[in-house]
Batch of 4 targets.
Target 1
Amino acid sequence: MTWIDSLNSAWDAILNAVDAVMPIWPQILILIAAVLVPGIYILTKNKKVAAGFTMVMLALTAVLVALKMHDGYTGVYADLFGFDAFSGLMMLLFLAVAFIVALISPSYSEGTKHHGEYYGLLLGATAGMMFVASASDLVSIFIGVELTSISTYALVALKKNDPRAAEGAVKYIIMGGLSTALTLYGMSLVYGITGTTNIADIAALLNGSGFTWAYAIAFITLIAGYGFKISAVPFHMWAPDVYEGAATPVSAFLAVGSKKMGIVVFLKIFLLMFIGVTITPVEELQYFFAILAAITMTVGNIVAISQTNIKRMLAYSSVSQAGYLLIIFAVASQYAVAAGMFHMITHVFMKGGAFIVVAALAGKIGENISDYRGLSKRAPFVALAMMLFLFSLAGIPLLAGFTSKFFLFSSALYAGGDAISGQWVWLVFVAVINSAISLYYYTKVIKAMYVDKGSETSRIKIPVSHAAALLICVIAVIVLGVYPQYVLGLCNDAAAALWAMVP
Amino acid sequence: MSLFSWILPENIPWLTLLLIIPLIGAMITLVMKGRNAKYVAGGFSLVTMILSFMLFLFVDDLSTMSENIAWIDVMGVKISYALGIDGLSLLMVGLTGLLVFLVTVFSTEKERPNLFFAMLLIMEVGLMGVYMAQDYFLFYVMWEVTLIPMYFMISWFGGPRRHYASIKFFIYTHVASLIMLIGIFAMVFQAGALSGGTADFSFAAVSAAAGGFTEMFQILVFGLLFFGFAVKMPVVPFHTWLPDAHVEAPTAGSVLLAAVMLKMGSYGIIRVCIENFQLGAEWWQPVMIVIALVSILYGAWACIAQKDLKKMVAFSSISHMGMVLLGIAMLSEWGLMFAMFQMFAHGLITAVLFMVCGITGHNVGTREIPLLGGLAGKMPKYAGFMVFGFLASLGLPGLVGFVAEFGIMYSFYEYLAGVDMIYLIALVLLSLMLTAGYYMWAMQRTIFGRETKKVDLSEVKDTNRAETAVLVVLCALIVLFGVMPSLVTDVLGSAAVLGVLP
């Protein structure tokens, strides 16, 4: 055996190792970036370089994921993480969120000196969300969620001189810790019942078995634990305080990123392990989610009406959006999952866009809705973008929010080409009435910007990076609204991939 | 092959142009500054109007004008960009084209005219789209597109309570549209299930499968859709947004709201409910008749109590739209034909009425009837138009309103004779009396009689040249179609709904 042979075998070993971790390369890349970013900031002392590096890594990873999706690649790593159409699409979603947040972060004036850590934590949280997207095991879901949670606790607390941020962070950590404990308890019960933590195995074992109390308790604790992540009522109390207190880019990240991760967890745990299996009367579980959806959207919308702080209003509107998304679990069809995923994607751009507007104006005008008076004169582009985002959130046609709500609400009546069922008609009624209520408080902001006269008339200039981020969101909101065909097709593929796992 | 077919060559998407021309006009007007906006908007609306008239004059077979492009086709749902016209659509498209141009000429907005005229043109896009859409997705999109310019028009250019009125209008009609959307989902998915799986949102696919709907399904879905349309019409008891919106809206907004936008409701009932749900329509017939009669009487009765001239005209709209619903509810060829005729007639007449109200507010400074009086002496042309408009609205023979109301009354009489309840016709006659009463009384108190001295009339001006020209055109059309109703009924003869009646 010569040294060339040993070099060859070493090379083969490396290739094998690369091949073995192929399904989780995107996460590995992001984790590498997360480790490198603080070092890069310390060396250059330039937060723009750190942000640029973050964005480049996110974009590279997104290209990698997109290429793999295009090839139709599927793979599993150690029965813990898999790559398929569903996880690929969700990873792209999370990468897009992180990219937009990284884009607006450097020019965000209020906050912190710890820029290196900021981007490191941001990337860490993103990696956690991507792990969740590809997880196929309770343990790997738990690890991903914790990675994201712990990173975001620190992100919220980074604005350490602001008492509101401190209050929000403390609330977030305590509630988060509680939810973690509850989740673990639920997972251990599931493990006790089935003897495995692999979701597919659990589903197969539970399928057809009878009702047990252990199962019911596991369900309730898991709902309580992960209901916190998506801020479903009554686990939503933390959201407005945290969103209000955190730096606005972080609020945006929480509202559009970490909440989507919660929905992904819901899809993996509740759809596959509980609703998908014929263990108990499935109908009752579906009704449970229908009622949860109805309560969440109604409470979110009604409380949002009375908010005067725009970040709190957006927080409550986020709560109601979680309610809309819970329709997926009531209806529990592939169509509903696809429509829900499309709504998650459009929500990134409309809600994210609205938060970017708030971030862009931070420090120049206040955060109260009354401060937005006369904005159309002072910052025409920002006001126009905000109007589009809010109309899109309210579901006004030809904007992304309308198209996604159209499909999401229709899922309640659609029965895969069979005669329609009237079972969830009441839920659609609740949803559309809520949609109309939300139009009221969104219109209040639009009225302030476009109809009311402000006390000040000086022009407001916003940083170029904010303008670029706004432009991305505006284009996405219009394109996804007018031409949803392509993205809906991706969502349908993803939903099919997820649905294939339902026993 | 008609003599004129070379005028509108077939390979050009004429119907799409009807949407695109005002849209481009709106974009250009929006970025303009100063008073030129009016002339640009006028130019674009003129071209649109001429194009819509050319469809009237030079197209023999309206079905050749349809356009269809696949839009969304995924997850078993098929949505297409489909436009098409039949007699009813054509009539409403023509009315929209005409009125948008006339209100553009009529309006003299001094503050931010670019926004004002841009909103008018966007509204025209939405209205044209609603009347031409052949796909329920497109129909709903266009239906909602009309709301936003109207909201801004009221809240930017409206009266003192404009914020309240605009948001009420917005939310109220938005809720109704959403309920209608649920009905559309149910209808389309059921039709898809009946025809083999794919949920096709096009009008044609739903109509083709509509025969298979069970009676219970028809009754329920008819109810959902009818609610959505009835709020828009509006009928009592869903009318409360209308007087507020009208009182606060600027004249151009009021004209378009009353003359074309309310017709979206009755158009929807005819096009969607009656065409697809015959069994449902029969079940709902008594309800529709009761609602129609209540609207007719309540609208007329409320008119008497109004102090604001514009609010009175708004309530008279409710009464006259009740007439439309009564015609529809007859479910007979004659009744539907004249319901559609009434939509057209009311569009022309109410435009005159709201313009007269606008001139009152503008030139005199108030529309409060008790403060007015003896205007005829100071403003003879204005008084002439007012008398003409009021007489046309109360159904003077020889004018367009008479033909419509006569037709509806006749078919109602026929229906009552069929069910042996002829005495009910007295209710409609009572409404005619009330109508004559409130118009005469209002005339007496505003233009005739003595000056009240409560407003200063020494400086008051009569209608200016543009206003006179617009009103003369409208009055001429009212006479023309009143004397020769066959001009309209010939066009209406090709309305699809007449082909599906039992």
Target 2
Amino acid sequence: MGFIDTIVRWLAPDAGVGVFNDWRWVLNSSLSTGWLALAALAVLLAVAGGAWGQARLPIRSRLLLVSLRLVAGLWVLLLFMRPAIELRAVSRVRTRVVLLVDDSRSMELPTRDGSRAERVSEHIKDSARQLSALSSTALIEPVLFSEHSRPVESIPEPLVCGGKSTKLGRALSEVSWQSSGRDLAAVVLYSDGADTSGLTPDTAAREAEKLGVPIYAVGFSDPRYTADLAIRRVLVDDFAFVHNPVTIDVEVEQQGLGLSEVEVTLRRDLEPMMTKTARFVDGVARVSFEFKPGRIGKRAYQISVPVQAGEVVKSNNETGVVLKVIRDRLRVLQVAGRPSWDVRFLREHLEQNPNIDLISFFILRSPTDLEKAPQHEMALIPFPVNELFTPPEIDSFDVVIYQDFSYRPYRMAHYLRFIRDYVEKGGALLMVGGDQGFDAGGYADTELAEVLPIRLGAHPAWDPGEFSPRLTEAGRQHPITHIGEPGEPTEAPYQRLPPLAGFNPSRGLMPGAQALLSHSGLPGNPPLVAIRSVGEGRSMAVATSSLWYWRFRAAESGSAGRAYDRFWTTALRWLVRDPELSRVRVEPKRSVVPSGERIEAELRVLGPDYRGLKGAKLHAELHRLGEEADAEPKLRTLRTGKRGEAVVEFERPHAGSYQLRVWAEHAGHRIGETTEPFIVEAASRELMSPFPRPEILRALAEASGGAFVDIEEPLPKIEVKDPRRVEVDRSRRVPVWNTWPPFFVLLGLLASEWWLRRRAGLV
Amino acid sequence: MLSLSKLWISALLFCLWPAAAQAEPGQLKIGRLEIGGQDNPHPTALRRLLWEVSQRTSVEVQLEPEPVSPDSDAIFHYPLLVWSGSGELPPLSEEAVRRLRRHLTFGGMLIIDSAEAQPDGPFDRSVRRALARILPRAELTRIPNSHVLYKSFYLVDHQAGRVLHAPYLEGIKLEDRYAVVYTQNDLGGAWARDAFGRWEFSVSPGGERQREMSFRLGVNLIMYALCLDYKDDLVHSPFIKRRRE
């Protein structure tokens, strides 16, 4: 301070002694870089000019002269920059120590003596003297945390713990920058370490290093008081391919129960799929479920372990995932009773679609045809009836097409039930007519007839006459029969397409079926194109073998066959339940809803042109799976907005698996229906993993240079470094360049050089 | 009495005519192109081939091919057209060229059979000139012996016809299929039979075996039109490979 006072007395006698307690050099120059560069160049020229003509002098003398000229030049340069002394009145700022206390729900779980939260409150009370001793050098900042950190006036008493998750890493990051201009000196952390954001000891150590201050962690290292069995983690990809293996990996953890193994059950829509035994190693058991989803769309899968006696949390023994199953390639089996143009054009259409894997079997020679060449001179192969039409091979197809095919010559009667079962389990059957199809193929009263959309048993079984198809009311709304150009009315293309020929009459529709096109010339307008949902699957009937006219004969009138391609493309997509074809769509905010939160989804209704449909009436019905049949489902009725959109919400449903069924109506017509699975978790994310994690707290403490202690032990000694941060209360700049001393220094330097030159005989 | 019996026969024929004329929608009907000149050198040939197809395969056929002019929209009722002939032919009209191009582009097939059996003869020149107008961007090339056409029903290893002037078939490929197949070996001459059931022409040099191979090639051509590359599907490969070894 004495030095400061001397400077103040000399340079600013009016400021008064003791006002300033700090000083530093500053430059007051406002010269631009260009001017400074010019000045530096002048100094260099002056030095170079001084060195001129010194060749006869000894080297030491030459160096001395040049150095003096250089120092004098630099001194001038420095004075140009107008040096000054800044006198300052500064004060040190106290650092802060954050008292970070976990108030997530897991802190309510019991210990030997009261809940974890109660033990923390007691520990803080016991450590009050030690913490207040820090107040001379540091400010104690109490902060609560669960999902986020929240600064508080003081740690509440009692400590109420309702946080839905524990995000330790985020809390540490937040307290590092939540400051009021004070340096963070240390963190005193009270937590069970049961982080829900996936923190591991390694990542915890990295977080601690990033923080850069010691963490003193107080936790719970005795596992005996949290006896529990919990599904810790379920790993599955966001989507899977239909008919391809998918794996669900499950990790189960137990503490305090002494189990050596546990049975883990996988269910789909609450129906048990498989149960596996998992063995515990270091308290953790892992098990994998592999299966092949049979149909596309979203399905809810539940994973559960049995509840054990004495568990502190029972709701974490069950969890679920919603798996979206998409298509890899469509596997289509086309079986045709004989080669024909209808068969050929359909095969060509299917082959041109890169997303279709087509397997065709055409009967090229019937048992009654003549054999005019030995077998080895023919390219015919046996019809592999048994291989194709029995499970599991039949189940590997997404669509089975029977095209103008009769089963009778091939003794296939007992295989028809496999096709019926295949459809009921989720497969798709398309029967295309001809004089060997439907009744003409002898399918009346067979098991296969049970899943067709049209009722068989008509006489005659085949009508070869020409006719024009008629669009039904259902057909006007259905995407399959919307085969015109974009924006064109649904009925328009049917007026320009050529008439068809050859028809398989029927006795009408089966229950639940819809006719999209009908025969306009027969009494009762029997169905020409009909569709039906049967069990889990779908079926479609096309009661003619002349649909190829739309592809080839239409070329006569200038059509490129687009109507034919659109018809079959959409029919295939409808048969395999392509979600993109649905005009009623559900986009859930979350498929797996945390406990206590609401189910929320955005709904959309599209018109026949697949643009948003304004003013459609929507019904959304939420049904809990496994609930008694007489239980009332929750129903909402909504209207769509400008873009055909609406939002549906269901407040705080109970835990369980749900199916949201949404259907829409517009102008008196039903537009469509779709379903969406939801899972409402029984346990909050917080209680899915209720076990204390002292290893995470230990990693934080060790990596940061702090210490970890159990809640039973006293708080360790907290070392707080001296504050580095200063606050400037007052300052004053006093110029030095225009005082006598710098002038005398310059004069001295120039005089010395002159004297040496004179002595050397240069002046 | 004679006039009465004639009346009865006429009445019977009148009653039968509509049924006979109305083909089943699933039947294969072939359109025989009427270009002009000598465009039907073997009138019984196609009927005989179609009869053999009906006997040997499951394909349902209408035995009589339908004569059709390329100037008419009726060609779009027949995805399979056959053009046989000999000698110089009159040039196709612009309308016929446009219609045939559209027919072939949208899935139709044209089989051309030269009855004059004379490479670089007047018919051959007429055909090449016409094809160059119908499909100007495509080229008539030799069809490789490994093509599915040679195994679409029978395993055919050799060329066939009334004569064997050209040891290959030629064709024009549109995308992945041959829309035009051209033979210069007078296949129709090997198929033709007179009203008494006798073969109209002898075949050389292979005799009756060559005639049988001509029918087999004809059956394969029709199967190819109806099934395209079906026999190239993987499921058939091991069987066909084993039989060819």
Target 3
Amino acid sequence: MLSTKDAADEQALSRSGLTADHWKVIDLMLPGSGGIPPARHVAAYVGVLNTALSMCTQAQRDSVAEVVEYAGSTGQLSFSDLVAWNAPAAEQANYVFTSAYYMCAEVREALGFPGQVRAPIKEAGPDQQVDDDLLEPVRARGPIYLETPQVNARTT
Amino acid sequence: MTSLTQPDVIIVGAGPSGSTAARVLAESGFSVTVLEQGTWPNPLDFAGARIDRDFLTQSSWSPNPNTRRAPVDYPCVVDDADIHPLMYNGVGGSSVMFGAEWPRMIPSDFNVRTLDGVADDWPVDYEDLAPFYDMVDEMIGVSGLAGDPAYPPHEADLQPPLPIGKVGRIAAEGMNKLGYHWWPGPHAILTKPLKGRGVCTRWGVCASGCPEDAKSSFDLAMWPAALAAGVNLVTGARVREITVNDHGLATGVVWIDEQRVEHHLAAPMVIVCANAIGTARLLQMSVSAQHPNGLANSSGLVGKRLMMHPMISVFGVYEENLESWLGPNGHPILSMQFAETDTARGFRRGAKWTISPVHGPTDILFRYNGLPLQQRSGQAGIDLVARAIGRCFEWTASVEDLPDDQNRIDLDTAVTDNFGLPAARITYRVSDETKAALQWNSQRLVEVHEASGAIETRHVDWLPSAGWHMMGTARCGDDPATSVVDGYGRSHDVPNLFVFDASVFVTGSAVNPTPTLSAFAARAAFHLAENSAQQPVPI
């Protein structure tokens, strides 16, 4: 039984072209954990997922459609059933649903992950830099390259 | 498309070797036309800083031409290939998608036959190329720390090194415990402004497009000077044949424009710089009564001895926050500890080791692909990400691949590109010796992670998606019976035809090939310019 909020979410999803069967898959793959919210509760997820579906490969879109259709044809959805039914499609759909989830700012914030961001090198502190103390053992061992005979007496 | 004026030199391909040769020759007074099948990369297309990078890098911005399937790409048939080629077809070539790791070959790489009794020696030595390594470094902008004891001292004017990051420091501490060599990686990435280009801001997305123009991809770093020197760059120009006359000299090329109209462009000299697959394909397509097996192929070696760099990684998770979303992506530190042969290990030649931060959730989950889906999706998957995000990096061993005649490029007429030209069929098998090297190195990589304090390690097998480095399909040498071109890239069979890209490599080293192929191209171009008075020409 869906809560009132979940039912409202599902209505919103339906307006976005996603169905209850989409939700069935999403809830399986992205149920949240600890302080990391389930995809169902991430406000931006539907929009991001739709963007992802417009950008991914046709093979990925096809896999999502197949998996959603399968979810609608079965009762309780489980990973073991999904993989036994069509492992490659399950993999592709998992990639799409999951990648879209981690594109959401709310999820990244919950993970403490800023994403790929600008970090000027002049702001890198000593804990980010090489220094002579760290290199001292390498320098102390001296050259490690093999001296080779100059087989070709060419000059440039 | 109007007819092009006949130049002194035609260069096929606008990547690192083609742009380097074009610049050197134009600055030496030659008129140069470069024909490039692709177009200029558009920074707006770069996946790098976009939040949807995970999808773009699997479709329109994939390094795999068979996935990307852009109109300018040609298909590569990989049914019989353990490693699939990765490349970018456009101005700047595959440097547009490279990680900007910029290591030189080590001296022994040029003398493998003498030292190890296998493969062949190059007709050039490290010392021959050293001044040209320095020259290219200065041309494009390279950062790094001088004094790496894995190399003879050299005089390159390097920009200061990039930060090695917390990942670099913890990795280095582990290497120090084991007494292994390591060094901050040299990068074709700016740490000081140069010619209007920006400085690295550690986005960490180097291979999918630098948002700051700090990466010295050759579209940015070499082409402006080449164009300023007067090079005529023609994009959307697919060369399908090198033409020859009755005297056995190249007379020019047949190329197809974007409207599918064929043209012939004549020139006294032709230089092919189309990468080890594209170059072999073009030479094989250039058949004639005189050259029924393809051009410059009296040795039978055109297309053969394809070498790539099989690689294996060990992913490590740590307790502390290493901010592993920060760049550079490619080798904050590297190690050449095991680059030389030690036959006690059970294989010949060696490996280059590098570390890479593992950036985001999708990147982390990829490292767990060996687990059943239910252990890396659902709550379990979220827990894996939450545990590793920012706290992980991997060590990778890139293994030298010895030449083998069975690893090769052939034409596949059953599959064609958008112009009806045959696809390149790749036949490539990883040898048992290379498999032994991968296995041995992967065990050592676990040990260094453990020395650094990793709480978890996992092996990551990259094959078949590891074909960044393609080499050897038109090898150089002094003997026309056993090589395609000489040490300056000149064809033994067709003396005004040259190959300057990594096709010429005799052996593949364990390091990234772009610094070496660029240095080879610079050296060969200078030699061509200095000896042009003796150059046989058809016109």
Target 4
Amino acid sequence: MEIVRRVFRREKTLTIEALIDFKKLVIKDITLSGDFFAYPEELFEELENSLKNTECRKAIEVLESYRDKLMLIGASIDDIELFIKEECFKD
Amino acid sequence: MEKWRLIIDEGDVYWNMAVDEAMLILREKNSIPNTLRLYIFKPSSVTIGRFQKLREAVNLEYLLENKIPFTRRITGGGSVYHDEGGEITYSIVASIDSVTRDIIESYKRICMGIIYAIKSFGLNPVFKPVNDIVVNNKKISGNAQSRKKNALLQHGTLMYNTDLDILEKALKAPKEKLVSHGVSRIRDRVTTLSIELGYRVNKKEVIDALITGFSRALNIELYRDQYSDEEEELASKLVKKYSSREWIYSR
């Protein structure tokens, strides 16, 4: 298990912190924080919860399912996806 | 010309945020009319954005030592220092259709009220999408919006005489943000009407300018009013949420 943290800066700042089980490739915990805007806000919190205790591959599918219904301003779902791909599957 | 309600009041940070959410809920239910609220935080307080981590958004030790109250907003965006004697906050609660469905455009349309207000002092404000207004490239107003299906709440600030020393001590900004703005300190990124004009602007002048500015920007006629019993009741219940550790420390 390892805690990984990255900061993404677009118009606003998105900080992603995750506890990843690299043996099982599972995101045990994750927080997405910053000064960005999300519409609807509740859906963003639902997405964040959906990524917890989730296999990395499944997490990417979850993210994809939110693309059409969640609008982020100043941050991007692309950055969350990049984070999961690069951090979960790093050698 | 459409008539909107105008409410001017003051309260502590928990009450102020509770009233804004109560108005949004009740506007969604069509229980209240479109409203412009102008208010002051008494005592001076800090609010942080819905998705911010408390410890990354504010200097918590400084706030606690100096007994500066703070809470989390329902809107996104960054941390704000609300100076009792130097900043006016506004909130617009309206049906989405009376502004526009396009979120980015709605920010701009409402922010035009602040732009007109600042212009009336002879300054040259610029809207910086999505939610900032700057004068001479320094932030003087920040704005944030939340939406339900049919109603929106947009609240924001206009700093006229904010104590920037306290602001700088109270708030934190990630270094990535400061770098992107080409500054090393928060203080170098913000300004007030008084600083820009070189004389001390008073509260009444700012309130009058905001009333005129929003009336023009939204093409509305404002009439002074009070909260309904239902609003007061709902806001009183929501005060518990905004003063709870569960909400404030949720991130």
